[in-house]
Amino acid sequence: MKVCKPHLVLLRIIEHSCEMRRGMTEAWTKWRGLVSEQSQSGQSVAAFCEERGLRAWQLYEWKKRLRESEAAKFVEVQLASPAEPVRPAGARSSAIEIRLKGGRSLVVEPGFDAGHLRALLAVLEAGA
After folding, report:
1. Per-residue pLDDT reduced to its tens digit, 56-88
2. Same domain, yes or no, for 77 and 56?
3. Residues 53 and 108 both lie in one domain
4. 4 plus 46 within the same structural domain
5. Per-position DSSP letters for 60-84, written without gaps between them
6. CA distance 27 to 38
7. Which residues partner with 96 through β-bridges?
């Protein structure tokens, strides 16, 4: 059984995550360009895809992803003064940490507004 040093495992995970993020950014850029090119070409999706060796369902899927990502750019966030006194830095909290794609996380305190949390998660997950 091979034993890995924890710091090396973490480094490999971070490197892999950066490579995946770079690949996803390249994919979004590529498909954003193709969707734009198709809409400006005047060709049908089928003709455009056939000419370029693409699958029509992929172009439709990316059109949907791009449209949805554009629709959910901003969510209003309102800051309120805390109802309870702020805890010292070392105190245990009953907060919940939600880990998101891309290494991001949210900390949700008791008494959160579920509607705001759903809207915030939808925006963050769509942009990931």
Report:
1. 999 999 898 888 877 656 666 677 766 666 666
2. no
3. no
4. yes
5. HHHHHHHHHHHHTS---------SS
6. 16
7. 108
Say if 49 falls within a structural domain: yes
Residue from 45, 43, 40, 41 nearest 64 by CA: 45
pLDDT tens figures, 96-116: 887 777 677 778 888 888 888
Provide the domain count of the chain. 2
What's the rounded Cα separation, in Å, for the pair 79 and 43?
Answer: 48
| Reported pTM | 0.42
In a domain, 35, yes or no: yes
Residues 6+ apart with CB under 8 A from 103: 14, 17
CA angle 39, 68, 48 (to 5 degrees): 25
* Paired tokens of 102: 């891309």
Same domain, yes or no: 24 and 64: yes
The beta strand positions in 9-100, using DSSP E, are: 96-99
CB-CB contact of 108 with 100 (8 Å): no
In a domain, 88, yes or no: no
